[in-house]
Write a structure and sequence with these properties.
heterodimer, A: alpha+beta, Alpha-Beta Plaits, 2 domains, 4-stranded antiparallel β-sheet, 4 helices, B: 615 residues, alpha/beta, Rossmann fold, 6-stranded parallel β-sheet
Chain lengths: 166, 615
Amino acid sequence: MRHIIAILLQNEAGALSRVAGLFSTRGYNIECLSVAPTDDPTVSRITLVTTGSDAVIQQILNQLNKLVDVVSAEDMTLGEHLERELVLLKLKVRPEQTDVVRGYVVRTGGRVLDPATDCFIVELTASEPEVNAFIGDLARQATLLEVVRSGALGIGRSGRGLRVVR
Amino acid sequence: MSDTVIQPRPMGHPLAGQRMTGAQMIMQVVADEGVTAIFGYSGGAILPTYDAVFLYNEEQARTGGRQIPLIVPANEQGAGFMAAGYARSSGRVGVCLVTSGPGATNTVTPVRDCMADSVPIVVICGQVPTAMIGTDAFQEAPVPSIMGAVAKHVFLVTDPTKLEATVRTAFEIARTGRPGPVVVDVPKDVQNWEGIYQGTGMLPIPGYRRRMNELAERSVDDAEAARFFEMLGEAKRPLIYAGGGVINGNAASELSELCLTFGIPVVTTLMGIGAFDTTHPLSMRMLGMHGAAFANYAVDDCDFLIAVGSRFDDRVAGVPAKFAKNAKRIAHLDIDRAEVNKVKRVQWSHIGSLPDALRALTAYGKREKFQRDWGEWHAELAELKRTYAMNYDRNSPLIQPYYVIEEINRHTKGQAIISTGVGQHQMWAAQYCDFRAPRLWLTSGSMGTMGFGLPAAIGAQIAHPNRLVIDIDGDSSIRMNIGELETVTTYDLPVKVVVLNNFGDGMVKQWQKLFFKGRLSASDRSLHKKDFVRTAQADGFGFAQRLERKEDVPRVIAEFISYPGPAFLEVMIDRDAGVYPMVGPGQTYDEMITGDHIPSRHKVDIKTPGPSEMF
């Protein structure tokens, strides 16, 4: 089963490689990974999508919680949560198709960032299945030159925030 | 929170406020931590810290303080295992001080070994100057990346103002929770930097400390204890399966208290040997691949298994589904949440410090006046011990290794520190030596590193100058770090080294005979011309003898053990002696082969396991 795991990680030399290394040495799979700073300059947040049985996911969380730089690790899939992913696409669009493509992008909730026909750049922020559908649809309407995805980001819907408690 | 160091309170460290170099700060923190010896080899990038060790000891000599000897090995791997032997035998953090590049990479094996066996050491390595990192400089190696994969934690100190707190925090991480090795990589310019010594302060590691606090606060509450005793009360054949965690967690006396109060018998893992007095009637000795037949039968027969600081490793539970097959319930106590339900599902578990948990259980049981008569089970176990006792060919004209170890054991009486290499001799020592207390049995369990025995014995002897320390080694294992024979005599350590020589990799040969139709690929050394006795003599051993005749065994062993200085003994053993019992890889205890001299409950055909299981 697919799980989305949120990790708060101390900004230390080698911290990210220790998290990535844990997955490779123990044979776990990373489907996507995104890392960025938080409002706390000492802490970054990793969002990671992986698949595995419940036992495997529990092992992943247990092992993550043994890494010294990991402040906390949570399986977002256990609770209600929102998932969003940003995708940037570069398309080659036939001039007569421009309006169709633009119309589709806007209807889908995306934006056209650059309308040049040989370098038509669009963006969408949506759930993973919606992003997949968006890419599939546009691939039929134009030629895909480049696909840039951020990987999933997740946030829990409970009133409790996943933050560093000091 | 800023990214600077937490300063809890201005404690009165006598040197607080003093200006010193980074190197001197490293040395001062090491001294503050109560370390009594450092193991290491010098080199360019660690020279400032070696100078700081010299200056520290010079100052101690001048003021009559306690010096911290620096023990120099032949190879940094030796230093790592000496630190490990020091830590395993004393429970204190071992310290290893090496240079950058090859110095650091030579310690990778002991660091991984310590991680696998949960042994607290701190390795401090020199690194090329900060500005040179990543330029392929002379003696540069990517230590944080390499060690990151094998250590409990790695620090690369790039901000010299954090150096002091980093070294102190390294000790904290090494010894807390499930202990392990911590590596501190210190660029040369950081060692040469000058600043003010604080004498206090740790790095903020909020997640780790929160988890440690949670572990410390979590004891067995009454509801948990009630459930435990309910299960214990329903059991007719309870058995404790104790592992290295009992020793690493300093819980041996609490474990004994629980066992003796309620009469629960104990098997231990290889790493758990000494967690419970092996000579006690409730001790069923070691289980597993080369465990005693009676120990493995006890596991097969028990109806309630209580795992304490053990982890259902593949050498114990080769087939997890069939391990402890008659146990209706399993309980598991461990410091590491990741070990619970990892291999085998359990019905009751407690994650936390073992001494606290065991004490709470014993107290609850006593308060509730818990009592069960397990006399029948005890009698069954005593019968198993009699019927399936360890045994060998006592009439063979050749020297049997078991006989040699029995003779050694007659003198040591379970009180000596015994280290080993890896292979047949390691298993024979585990099977035939008694251990009446924890931290006497030093062996590379999980990693299985050949060459561990000699340097580990040196480290243990440094930690316990007045104790009898014996390295029971094999001819192949001792070769791996044979350079450390010289270290024994350089420091005039009364270590006893016994090599059971069967001309090759005995365990490998045993497997090749069992599983590869006797093709001894690269494992036989009959034609080698090595003279171990002359090797030991060349390194200055005052006692260096070869034992070749069976009738000489008692006399020579007695002389060897009682020799006051470094002693070396090579014993020419039966080359075909095997390790029995044996549960083949990926096999169940039903399929245990007991050999020609130990009876078996089952008729067993030796099966060749499939290639994927063969390790």
